[in-house]
Amino acid sequence: MLKSFFQDQLAEAGCDEAGRGCYAGPVFAAAVILPGSFSHPVLNDSKQLNAGQREELRIYIEENAVSYAVATVDNEEIDQINILKASFKAMHLALDKLKKRPAYLLIDGNRFVPYKKLKHECIIGGDGIYASIAAASILAKTYRDDHMRRLHEEFPQYNWKSNKGYGTQEHRKAIEIHGLCKYHRRSFNIVPGQTSLFMDDAV
Questions:
Q1: What is the pTM of this model?
Q2: Residue 176 and residue 121: Cα distance in Å, rounded?
Q3: pLDDT digits (tens, 9 = 90+) for 125-184
Q4: Cα–Cα distance list, 21 to 78, 85, 200 (Å)
Q5: Are 149 and 160 within 8 A, CB to CB?
Q6: 119 forms bridges with which residues in the sheet?
Q7: Predicted local confidence at residue 200, as pLDDT
Q8: How far is the C-alpha of 130 from the C-alpha of 135, rounded, in Å?
């Protein structure tokens, strides 16, 4: 059972990103504020759920959250500022879009750039500990997966509808055959012989 809150004095938003380790496409981030009564029997880190569970939870989260928002930073900006800064920026953009303002942030991971002087807590593996971070991970993942399926229609040779832009063997082979397209992250040096470096979070 995930924990509802890190602290109970200030309104909390959980934040997480999806697509940080991908070869192609944007990085997505979500911010979610949940009510104290929020509960779902399978809520967990999005990587621990199957696609059907994630889609079911996405609907439930959107219907029951106090506030939620999703934002992106595209591959061109990722190449300009680097993926870590792009991930933080996507989280900031998601927080900007929340209809209710949080006073405390829970961030999945070990680093974060402070947002508008709000207190925050970085939690490694937080999407498997706190409900709001898990909810954010599910929204970021499902929105990004939908986006990559749309990009697949434009460049079907990379099979993004299946691999979602991660560095699978299939995707690496397609890059060897077809080269890079406009949605690939060129700063990742994803050329034959180097692509094995970016396999770590292909989920």
A1: 0.92
A2: 41
A3: 999 999 999 999 999 999 999 999 999 999 999 999 999 999 999 999 999 999 999 999
A4: 11, 13, 7
A5: yes
A6: 104
A7: 39
A8: 9
Token digits for 194? 């180097």
Tokens for 83, please give them.
């993926």
Q: Which residues of the chain have pLDDT under 70?
A: 192-203
Question: What pLDDT sits at residue 193?
Answer: 55
In this structure, the strands spanning 12-18 and 104-108 are: parallel
Residues 6+ apart with CB under 8 A from 71: 28, 29, 30, 90, 91, 93, 94, 96, 97
Give the separation between CA 38 and CA 43, rounded to whole angstroms. Answer: 10
The amino acid present at 68, given as its one-letter code, is Y
Output the six-digit token pair for 111: 């680093």
Q: What is the CA radius of gyration of the chain?
A: 17
Q: Extract long-range pairs of 52-56: CB within 8 Å, 24+ residues apart.
A: 54/138, 54/141, 54/142, 55/142
User: What is the C-alpha separation between 190 and 122, in angstroms, rounded?
Assistant: 30
Q: Domains in the chain, please, with CATH?
A: 12-198 (3.30.420.10)
